[in-house]
Amino acid sequence: MKKSLLFIVLISIISFTYSQTFSVAKLDETPINDNDIITFNSVDDDANLVTIITNNGSSAINLNLVAETITGTAGTDMEFCFGACLWGITQGTIYGPLSIDAGVSTGELEVHFHNHSTENDIITYTFKIYEDGNESNAFHFTYKYDANYVGVSNISNNNIFVYPNPVKEKFTVKLNSLNNSEIVLTNILGRVVLTQKLQENKNTVDVSKLSNGVYFYSIINNNKIIETKKLIIK
Predict the structure, then answer these.
(1) What residue ranges do the domains of the chain occupy?
(2) Could you count the other beta carbons within 10 Å of the beta carbon of residue 79?
(3) Tell me, what DSSP letter sits at residue 211?
């Protein structure tokens, strides 16, 4: 009985330790989910990603920011604020801490990112925001500048299912009531490595010839990108 009780307590502690106690949203309150890719095709004001971070926990937290990967640019043309405002960001450098009281959200422009570079057609920054001293309480997202991005359709992503992810050799793309669609797979440098037309219902995509690593897939319907997310090949 004591062993069972100890096991339950340990599981509770582990679950608490690894729970994310803060949430991230755009300025219009649209949630940004863990590992989301946010794509822009302009370096003007519409490419200024303002994020609102809310501390959902019962005590104040200090958050750090790190650019885990930067591709297509040196990072010198990234204007960003994370508490303090800076011009230029370096991969692997830790910025912060940003202090947020319990139940409080950051103010407008307190946390934002703005890429000013057009040196390549595709530029990506993969960010990690995490609690100072507790990296398990973390959030990841990718800021992606794509000069050829044509905008996001209003088609609900509930019509799209991609699984499994991570994938070993093949994965399935299930589309509900979507015709004239295709999937485009790019590597972390932005190079297209696979393009495949998709049929309504289930589709099998073979990636057995690709190297293991991180990729991005885009579902395109009638020449509009309706979903872009990270795909991991193991």
Answers:
(1) 20-146, 157-233
(2) 15
(3) P
> What are residue 39's phi and psi, to 5 degrees?
-110, 140
Q: Which two tokens stand for residue 29?
A: 């309150």
Instruction: Supply the pLDDT for residue 158.
Output: 55
Question: Contacts by 30-37 with C-beta closer than 8 Å and gap 24+?
Answer: 32/141, 34/139, 34/140, 34/141, 35/140, 35/141, 35/142, 35/229, 35/230, 36/141, 36/142, 36/229, 37/141, 37/142, 37/144, 37/216, 37/228, 37/229, 37/230
Please check whether the two domains, 20-146 and 157-233, share a CATH topology.
yes
Task: Give pTM, 2 decimals.
Answer: 0.61
Closest Cα partner for 116 from 142, 78, 83?
Answer: 78
The per-residue pLDDT for range 147-204, each reduced to its tens digit, is 877 655 444 555 788 899 899 999 999 887 778 889 999 887 778 899 999 987 889 9
What are the tokens at 7? 């096991």
Q: 119-130: per-residue pLDDT in tens?
A: 899 999 999 999
CATH superfamily of the 20-146 domain = Immunoglobulins (2.60.40.10)
CA–CA distances in Å: residue 48 to residues 18, 36, 111: 31, 16, 11
Fold for domain 157-233?
Immunoglobulin-like (2.60.40)
For CA atoms 66, 50, 102, 137, give the dihedral sign. Answer: negative
